[in-house]
Amino acid sequence: LKDGLGGIWYCELNPREEQNPSYKLYSCHGGKIVASQVSSTLPLLVTLGKDGKISVYDFEAKMLLMQKEFDKAGIDLIWFYL
User: Fold this and answer.
1) Contact, 57 vs 45, CB < 8 A?
2) Confidence band (pLDDT; 50, 70, 90) for 44?
3) Is residue 2 part of a domain?
4) InterPro entries, per this entry (predicted)?
5) Cα of 71 vs its chain's centroid, Å
6) Is 1 contained in some domain?
7) Which backbone phi and psi does 39 adopt, to 5 degrees?
8) Region 18-39: what's the mean pLDDT?
9) Reduced to 3 states, what is the DSSP secondary structure of residue 29?
10) CB pairs under 8 A, 24+ apart, for 67-70?
């Protein structure tokens, strides 16, 4: 099942058997992505969603490293290089 906040959940819907608890399989943006940036030195992608979430992905390992949700949505990202 997919919820409205970008989560994909595993749920057992068989009423005849004992049910295991539901758990989140994957988390992503709940709406449009408004901005993204790629690191020039690391295999990282940062995305900003209209839902106020910032997500950091390691695209070589194909995994979400972190996600932070804010009360207000942003409109752009800037990656400052050192």
Assistant:
1) yes
2) very high
3) no
4) WD40_repeat_dom_sf
5) 16
6) no
7) -70, 145
8) 79
9) coil
10) 67/27
